[in-house]
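From: lab user (bench 3)
To: helpdesk
Subject: output format question, protein + flavin-adenine dinucleotide

Hello, I'm new to running complex predictions and I'm not sure whether the block I got back is the full result or only part of it. Here's what I submitted:
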Amino acid sequence: MKPAPFDYLRATSVREAVQALADAAGDGKIIAGGQSLVPVLALRMARPKVLVDINRIPGLSTIVPVDGALRIGALVRHARLVEQTAHPMLAEAARWIGHTAIRSRGTCGGSISHADPAAELPVVAAALGATVHIASLHGTRTSSAADFCTGPLETTLADDEVVTAVDMPLPQRWGFAEFSRRHGDFGLVTVAAAEVGGHWRIAIGGVGGVPLRAEEAEQLLDAGAPPHEVAAAAAAAASPSSDIHASAEYRRAMTEEFVLRALGQEKERVA
Ligand code: FAD
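Helpdesk reply: Thanks, we reran it on our side. This is the complete output you should expect:
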């Protein structure tokens, strides 16, 4: 199928992009890498009147160290996250996103804004306690990654807001493990565990509408409990649904196994 007709605007600044979104009054959409939006348009699951292309906006493709974190510009491609060496956890997670073609176009801001419950970056952002930077005509605001994601493909982003960057803290220790049927598929279960500021967070993708924080498991990990106890607590916190890819029981069993694997792969920060 082909998309419904739309107007196209190539923004040259964040201000121009948010002005265009405001003018479209709910009928505008940002296009970044297009890897999720274009299929949605082609299937006519969305029919925006205006597409606002942010790819030429200067300053959104940078990776900058800020106060114990890396500030990842909204337009940083997944492939660049794989290549960079300053944040090994992000590099490992981004390696699992789709295939080379998708990683070379898809963006960090696009993945966070699209909020697919099976996507890797929202899970890692939740485990790290990341901060999302958002701009609109009214100014700027920040949101924790956990609050930003409100449901499957749902966020707190208003119609006239754009994500400009995500601050991804550098963990002291971390682990990442994913189970997918074929290389490049979305994960059936994705586990990210990160120790930031002396406390562990465990986030699990694929077992609910948003990345699940396994808080009891986190407390056990902070207290030095053995990995099998932590993994069992994480699996108990998950309430996945059955779908064509896997039953709820299977996903829960995979949650326990992949929390164990993530903790088994626990890596020290490379200073
Ligand atoms: P776009 O497609 O351009 O936009 C997606 C949505 O986000 C749109 O609603 C758009 O309006 C909004 N948006 C984009 N940028 C911003 C912004 N800065 N501010 C506000 N709103 C914005 N992803 C995974 O995580 N894991 C996978 O395994 C995976 N496999 C894939 C396999 C295939 C075959 C395909 C086609 C895609 C796959 N993806 C996967 C999706 C891919 O990672 C996308 O790149 C990503 O989800 C969205 O990024 P994008 O830059 O392409 O966003």
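A quick orientation on your result: Residues 7-53 form a domain with the Uridine Diphospho-n-acetylenolpyruvylglucosamine Reductase; domain 2 fold (CATH 3.30.43.10). Let us know if anything else is unclear.
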